[in-house]
């Protein structure tokens, strides 16, 4: 089966004699995947998705279907995977069930049309639920690695996600050994083998963002490895634009809030507490703004590491960042590779069940900062469903951090679509984070600190601080009329008008009407 | 200041000479409470509420107000407290802000009328948020104890709740030493002093429901104790009725589910995993049904311990129950006191930040079973707001256990008010537990296993298994028309009709119309 490969440096990457015998082509490898299989692949955000198996699998699905047979798989991943991967498999209508996250238009469209089942769960729950058997048997795992050690262990690539679990539970394993991944990445990973199902669970002994409790490699049963594919392919890049004025205004409010918390004695002055920030330009702007805050030795305990983190590490603002994935832009990838000797000492990549683990997030006192689609006047947050029905991406890790964080914040521009959509509405038509969990909401207009406030007080603060001025009269009018109802209740609403903003948008193209 | 008391056995209960000097009357003690104070009192469910300070405080508030001055306090507790307590302080309009839970009609009415601020938060968050200062300074703590040891430590009574925190953070402390509490209760408590604010948190080393990590007493700075009151007063009893046919049918489905999980290899056959059950008749019926399931050495990791648990302990079905409170009926109190030498070896009472701690709940793999007001067809659950606006009780610990449990279940009769209200609706007008967290819904008609299902599949299972047959056609009609909309989305809804059940109820007195 062994094939000669033109990939540079690949001989150094497959150092185990047994597994070297399994080298084959992607086209051959994907023959191990059968219609109806549950296939679990590597990848979390843009980092670490398999590069060549998926195009080959899409070809195989197309061919089988041309022969008159159906061919769909259930696809499990870490979170989102590369756009190309999601798109190829969606276009050939190859996915019956998708779990746990996606962010790609073709897949999204099929999900919203009812053509693809999508199960949108907290990222910290994925490994546990697969072990529990909620997604049936995992037939095949496809995992990208940076190399194979002499004793047959696997060196992870740019994300870990659920790879440890996929390798443990799958019947058959296809490895993509990618020699493009810098060899210096070896040692940056901390793969924890101490998780278990109850009643056999033990405390996870992490008390600082830079604690290491695992090993740098994945274990794998060589008997399960049916194919090894050699590649030399760049990671997909995460899109990133320069922070605009809105993102910078949001970042400014967040940084002021940190100062306020420090003065109140709730956070250490220099180091704050470990930061978590979701993916996107707003998060990137907040992190970028830390450079100007006089901080040093900050830490991050997050699920992704974006470009802004590299600059913070380089100038000493951030001492250590824990994550499960590198999600860098083209420029970020260049910078990371060029200075990997610096970065590797300040970054730890972990399995997502650890990067997002409720136990660790609560213990460390993580400052959770996530984006949202919209919040209502009482602090309920919709992160996932446009107009309450159409999935955007998924809840991802936002609930893992929000529910267990020390301070839980949601950041968003006050409007979308040139002002036609308000991010503050009377009632959100889908709740991903409840009023019990949301503590701070920030838009470019201000920061609403909801801690310790009853619902009616929250409503006034959210409208006054966060809503776009154009929408404040509409929101105040709703609130006042709801409060004036006989028997208005703890959380006043007019049920017949609760979604009036959304209905107006559906009818007129603007929530303004 | 020392007074002679008629309370039997009281001399044995106050064994510390310094604190014995502080014995006074309730009327004198509450003079330490000033208008505007934040007052934190003991009590979680029916167990351990102060018995005589609150009536005296209500009198003081009435007197001060008769003199022309206003007098309100902010009232912090463990969870609900005795009905009398809540009622007395609400009737004199003595509470400005209430946190974190209540279940009493007078207080509820004032909250829903906008006359009292109520902050409804997860019970595991209370201690942390008070330490963080979200509720300002705690001026006075009133804590019932069973006794004071020679070295000045305090023996807890029938609940712990947040008492450890109240004693630590309050400026002034009033102790009620209640000689009615059986002396044999000493040693049943496990008060953990290892919690801290980040960055100083350590793992909580509990790996089994019966692990003890603390000490049997509260510590207290004697200089802060301004008054000690002697009482000999029974705990309030929790109301309890015999399980009806509906509760028994729900219990039957739950027990069948446990069998199914055991056969699937997801739970140990004899011992299952630690059980948590909310307060109420349904939970009591489920626990009572375990007696007939062939189980032995079960454990419970819960926040309350109800009557049904006593029988399970007595016959060996349950080996150990961890809780923060005893919430027993009159008959349960009699049984507990009469056989306390048996029960004390099988029960551990903990602070609620530990009984409900996300870290421990996740590690142990707790089976979470909580009641609800209603669920929608996609699995979002409303636990708190009647018709979306009027608070019933509060979220309590339901989120602590649901969010981190191994299997998260909600149990409810399929209808309320003689069928006029359906517990399954198109969309819940308030979400306390999102679709991402709800795994199983049970009514007397059946059990909906939502694990691994996309929203549209969940909807069919919930309607078919759980909805009352009278409501199934209405629900199916809504779902089918929502799915038929162009661009129906991942989670189809007709926004203009999403609350049609609730609006029909408001207009006609029945969701049937």
UniProtKB/TrEMBL annotation, chains A, B:
Domain of life: Bacteria
Residue stretches spanning the membrane: none
Keyword match Hydrolase: yes
Alphabetic keyword roster: Hydrolase
SUPFAM superfamilies per UniProt: NagB/RpiA/CoA transferase-like
InterPro entries for this protein: AcetylCoA_hyd_C (IPR026888), AcetylCoA_hyd_C_sf (IPR038460), ActCoA_hydro (IPR046433), ActCoA_hydro_N (IPR003702), NagB/RpiA_transferase-like (IPR037171), Succinate_CoA_transferase (IPR017821)
Domain Acetyl-CoA hydrolase/transferase N-terminal: 16-230
GO MF, any single term: hydrolase activity
Pfam family, one: AcetylCoA_hydro
Domain Acetyl-CoA hydrolase/transferase C-terminal: 332-478
Similarity comment text for this entry: Belongs to the acetyl-CoA hydrolase/transferase family.
NCBIfam families hit by this protein: YgfH_subfam (TIGR03458)
Name of this protein: Acetyl-CoA hydrolase/transferase family protein
């Amino acid at each position: 089966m062994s094939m000669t490969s033109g990939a540079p440096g690949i001989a150094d990457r497959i150092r185990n004699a047994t597994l070297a015998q399994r080298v084959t082509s992607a086209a051959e490898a994907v023959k191990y995947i059968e219609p109806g299989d549950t296939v679990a692949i590597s990848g979390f955000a843009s980092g670490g998705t398999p590069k060549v198996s998926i195009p080959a699998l899409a070809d195989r699905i197309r061919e089988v279907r041309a022969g008159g047979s159906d061919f769909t798989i259930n696809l499990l991943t870490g979170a989102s995977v590369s756009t190309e991967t999601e798109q190829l498999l969606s276009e050939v209508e190859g996915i019956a069930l998708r779990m746990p996250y996606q962010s790609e238009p073709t897949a999204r469209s099929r999900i919203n049309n009812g053509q693809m089942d999508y199960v949108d769960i907290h990222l910290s729950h994925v490994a546990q639920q697969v072990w529990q058997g909620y997604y049936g048997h995992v037939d095949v795992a496809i995992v990208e690695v940076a190399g194979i050690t002499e004793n047959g262990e696997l060196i992870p690539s740019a994300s870990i996600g659920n790879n440890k679990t996929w390798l443990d539970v799958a019947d058959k394993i296809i490895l993509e050994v990618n020699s493009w991944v810098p060899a210096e990445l070896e040692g940056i990973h901390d793969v924890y083998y101490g998780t278990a199902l109850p009643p056999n669970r033990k405390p996870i002994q992490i008390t600082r963002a830079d604690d290491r409790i695992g090993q740098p490699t994945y274990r794998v049963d060589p008997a399960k490895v049916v194919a090894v594919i050699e590649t030399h392919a760049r990671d997909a890049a995460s899109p990133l634009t320069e922070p605009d004025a809105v993102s910078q205004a949001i970042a400014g409010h967040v940084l002021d809030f940190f100062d306020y918390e420090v003065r109140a004695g709730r956070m250490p002055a220099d180091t704050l507490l470990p930061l978590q920030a979701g993916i996107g330009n707003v998060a990137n702007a907040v992190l970028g703004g830390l450079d100007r805050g006089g901080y040093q030795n900050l830490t991050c305990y997050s699920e992704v590491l974006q470009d802004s983190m590299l600059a913070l590490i380089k100038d000493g603002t951030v001492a250590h960042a824990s994550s499960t994935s590198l999600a860098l832009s083209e420029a970020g990838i260049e910078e990371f590779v060029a200075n990997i000797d610096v970065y590797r000492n300040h970054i730890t990549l972990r399995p997502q069940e650890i990067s997002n683990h409720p136990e660790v997030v609560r213990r460390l006192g993580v400052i959770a900062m996530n984006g949202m689609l919209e919040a209502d006047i009482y602090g309920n947050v919709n992160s996932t469903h446009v107009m309450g029905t159409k999935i955007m991406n998924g809840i991802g890790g936002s609930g893992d951090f929000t529910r267990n964080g020390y301070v839980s914040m949601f950041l968003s521009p006050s409007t979308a679509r040139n002002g036609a959509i308000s991010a503050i509405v009377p009632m959100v038509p889908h709740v991903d984070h409840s009023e019990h969990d949301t503590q701070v909401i920030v838009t470019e207009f201000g920061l609403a600190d909801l801690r310790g406030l009853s619902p009616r007080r929250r409503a006034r603060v959210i409208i006054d601080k966060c809503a776009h001025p154009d929408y404040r009269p509409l929101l105040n009018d709703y609130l006042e009329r709801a409060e004036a109802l006989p028997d208005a209740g703890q959380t006043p609403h007019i049920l017949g008008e609760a979604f009036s903003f959304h209905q107006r948008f559906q009818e007129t193209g603007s929530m303004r009407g």
